[in-house]
Amino acid sequence: MNQQSAAPVLIMTGVSKRFAGVQALKEVSLSAHAGEVLALMGENGAGKSTLLKVMTGNYIPDAGQIMIDGAPVHLTTPGDARRLGIRVVPQEPEIIPYVSVAENIYAGALPTRGRLFNRAALRARVAADIERSGFSGMIDPDQLGNTLSPAQRQIVEILRALSGPLRVLAFDEPTSSLSDHEADSLFRLIARLTDSGVAVIYVSHRMKEILRIATRVLVLRDGQTVGVRPARETSESELVRLMVGRDLSALYHRSARQPGAVVLSVDKISSADIHDVTFTVRSGEVVVLAGLVGAGRTELARAIIGDVPITAGQIRMDGKVLHLASPRDAVRAGLCLAPEERKAQALLMKRSVRDNISLAVLQSLSRWHIIRRGAERRLAAESVAALHIRTPSLEQEVATLSGGNQQKTVLARWLARQSRLMILDEPTRGVDVGAKADIYAIIDRLASAGAAILVISSELPEVLGLADRIVVMQHGTVSGTLDRADATEEKILSLAILERAA
Amino acid sequence: MMVPATEAVGAASIPAKRGALRRILDMLGVQNVSLLIALAVLVAFIGSQNSNFFYSSNIATVGTTVAIVGILAVIQTVVMLLGGLDISVSSQAGLTSVVSAMVFTASHSALAGIATAFVVGLATGLLNGVIIVYGRVNAVIATLATLAAYRGLANLISNGRAQGYVGVDQVFIFLARGTLAGIPVLIWILALVALVTQLLLHYTDIGRNIYAVGGNATAARLAGIPLNRYILGVYVLCGLVSALAGILLTARTGSGQPTSGSQGLELQCITAAALGGCSMQGGKGTIVGTILAVILLGVLQNGLIILDVNSFWQDIAQGALLVIAVVIQQRRSGARSVGLPA
Predict the structure, then answer these.
(1) Does the pLDDT value for residue B1 go beyond 60?
(2) Phi, psi angle pair for A276, to nearest 5°
(3) What single-letter DSSP state applies at residue A427?
(4) Helix %, strand %, coil % for chain A, to 5?
(5) Hey, is A213 helix, strand or coil?
(6) A277: which DSSP letter?
(7) How far apart are CA B223 and CA A49, in angstroms?
């Protein structure tokens, strides 16, 4: 991280990548020099992960050029990038359980003698690798994959990267699962790597460590480069300012509404992944849970809905304490959750729009268990009309609809149930702009009609556009609450990422 | 459908009726139309080799032989819709067959025998469900284990021999050889089981929820559907229907059979359900498809006998059909050839 050699190892120019309706990267340029640490920052969805995936050949860009040592390359598979020495240590390391560390590292390229697996050679090689990379005493070649700590799992990924040619090594939020001590070892390794001429790319939200180890900081916003700053000449506040500042206000429509009585009151609840969370949602109010991915917002939603048990605290609905053993109890009490993974967790993909809309109200549509089909069709038709679900017919298979119309189908299901409190986890993820505006309008309409709405959103403009009140989470607990009037993107982001004074 | 259309009629009618044909195709589904075509081809082939095939006595034979495997295939369809599998149906049938005959022998009451068989089926089905839900055992492994255990139990209480003689009792005679409106009672029972199941699946919230649980368990859970209750309920239902199969087995053979007559039914009913369009992952399948597949398998079996083919070929044909059915299913769902299938 000291000297910076003249020629960049990796140059990306004008890289663009578009997914159905979403411009994930727009003419992003980047250069990584041998011996430097280039930090990548940006809020959730800014395009950091997409950029890494382009770099490693997982995504093929729609436009742009990638050069290694000045020569243009075409990365069409992860193998291409690997051969050229570009490696990523993923946020969630891929570890084979019940198999030794040594075999994990060299899986697919195990040393052999004749046709036989040469265990001794493998052990010797891995022991030498560990010694050389400075991980002595931190990991044992014979340890089994399932017994590794988060830090050790990352070491395995690093050793895998070191096992081949290595020019560029990218880390995707490496310290999110590490203790301070383990993080220090990681930083020492990064220093050694840069000393040996590797270009390190470092994706993180943690300001302090970025300012400590990075040479330069590149900030992305909405898939575009908004600035590159030398780490020595920038500050936390400048970086936060660069990361925020999108204008999507035209998408939001909000009626004047007056919040009523408290519907949901969450009082000091804890579960396996969250601790001591307190907040309320009132009738006619939209509360947005903001924070980074992994801050515990989805886990909080699952605790409220009775999907995971709470270990402490109370959840009250209209003042009455709820004892929820399962989502069934929650649904009956008037709560509902539209999960983030709508295909995997919300929709019956092979069933019709009608089936999907009526799923949570079949019992009330039935008499002696016989479904009144006319009533069911009327309900579905009314929902399709009210929510502008674009579908050729009520009998259309949900899998064939667009993301936005699928999400509206999920909303229709809970509208039919007339839930008092709706939790919407990332309701506009993977939804095109037109449908986004529709979904915002639906949320506004529901709140105006007196529902209490809790939205989980990782997009700051969306948070500001929707919320009456913003609850920001960090590390499984609430780090702050902001009223609509005095919320800004900077304040939210600060509460989400800056380490609080103890 | 037993008489294949001649080529001339077929060729003339197709262009004129394209609209109607399309509608029929949409209504029946590609899967069912394929089954009907396969059935027509098979019937035409067997019939052309040996015209005895078309005797009404032979058609009645096909009907009564498929009755027992048919009701098991229907209930297997329900289990598979839920995303499960029950391999133990055949030994549940064997066990209940023995029990019904032994209780009949002891009490001289057919109803007591039948009632006890149903109680036993309820218990074995419930045990399957409890092992799967509360023991967290994969459905294939759980029912493979109880397939062996229930068969062992049947052999244990019967000493491995046929039990009692029910061929003198009017109730059992009626079940095995009686007719209503000229149609064998066995076929009526199959039709009734299929009809009730079809109504359950398509016209009740229970049936819809079964499709939901099998199609997306998380979505079903978040929608407030009690998953465990449904899984336990379906396995209990499967036990009860297996008991019905066991009772019919006793009636047909005249005595309680621990293994003979029931062994292999699990393969046949799973093959029929898969051939009929049930997805191994759950959430997809129809009773109509399963019934068509049951008839197809029955005709194939009968044809092999009529054409004097070595009976060992039947097992090979069964196994091959099961594999082919699942391969077609998986390929049509667009599964990629990477690693072990889901």
Answers:
(1) no
(2) 55, 55
(3) T
(4) 40, 25, 35
(5) helix
(6) E
(7) 33
Closest CB to A339: pick one of B220, B222, B283. B222
Domain boundaries, chain B: 65-313
> What was the ipTM of the complex prediction?
0.81
Does CATH number 3.40.50.300 belong to domain A8-95+148-243?
yes
The average pLDDT across B300-329 equals: 86
pLDDT at A5 over 80: no
Half-sphere exposure of A430 (CA within 13 A, CB side): 12
Question: In whole angstroms, what is the distance from residue A7 CA to residue A162 CA?
Answer: 22
Residues of A in contact with B212 (CB under 8 A): 348, 351, 355, 359
Alpha carbon distance A219, A425 (integer Å): 26
- Tell me which residue has tokens 């008092």: A420
Are A472 and A496 in contact by the 8 Å Cβ rule? The answer is yes
Residue A98, classed as helix, strand or coil, is coil
A325 touches chain B (CB under 8 A): no
Instruction: Give the list of residues 6+ apart from residue B224 with CB closer than 8 angstroms, or none.
Output: A327, A328, A330, A331, A332, A360
Best B82, B205, B279 residue to mutate vs chain A (most A CBs within 10 Å): B205
Beta-bridged to residue A71, according to DSSP, are A68
- Are B222 and A332 an interchain contact pair (Cβ–Cβ within 8 Å)? no
Task: Mark B283-310 as b/e (b = at least 16 C-beta within 10 Å).
Answer: bbbbbbbbbbbbbbbbbbbbbbebeeee
Q: Which residues contact A476 (CB under 8 A, 6 or more apart)?
A: A273, A274, A275, A295, A296, A299
A39, A214 Cβ separation under 8 angstroms: yes
Q: Which residues of A169-179 are buried (b: 16+ CB within 10 A; e: fewer)?
A: bbbbbbbbbbe
Q: Is B138 helix (H, G, I), strand (E, B) or coil?
A: coil
Residue A30 has phi, psi (to 5 degrees) of -155, 145
What would the mean pLDDT of B266-281 be, rounded to a whole number?
92
CA angle A158, A161, A167 (to 5 degrees): 120
Residue range(s) occupied by CATH 3.40.50.300 in chain A:
8-95+148-243, 249-334+419-497
Alpha helix ranges (H) inside B7-108: 7-16, 18-28, 30-49, 56-81, 89-107
Task: Enter the tokens of residue A215.
Answer: 């040479």
The two tokens of residue A67 are: 């050069």
pLDDT at A373 over 80: yes
When mean pLDDT is compared across A228-232, A401-405, B1-5, B164-168, the lowest value belongs to B1-5
Beta bridge partners of A472: A290, A480
* Nearest partner of A317 among A333, A305, A298, A301, judged by Cα: A333
Could you give the angle at which helices B227-253 and B205-215 cross, rounded to 10 degrees? 110
The CATH number that domain B65-313 falls under is 1.10.3470
Question: Alpha helix (H) ranges present in B135-282?
Answer: 139-158, 170-177, 185-203, 205-215, 217-222, 227-253, 265-275
Q: How many CB atoms lie within 10 A of CB A373?
A: 13
Give first-to-last CA distance, chain A, whole Å.
30
Q: Which of these, B147, B116, B143, B119, lies nearest to B130 by C-alpha position?
A: B143
How far is residue A83's CA from residue A18's CA, in Å, rounded to a whole number?
Answer: 26
- Residue type at A116 in one-letter notation: L
What CATH fold (topology level) applies to the domain A249-334+419-497?
A: Rossmann fold (3.40.50)
Query: What residues of A are in contact with residue B27 (Cβ under 8 Å)?
Result: none
Token match 């009792």: residue? B169
Q: Chain B closest CA to A261's CA: distance in Å?
A: 26
Helix, strand or coil, per DSSP, at residue A244: coil
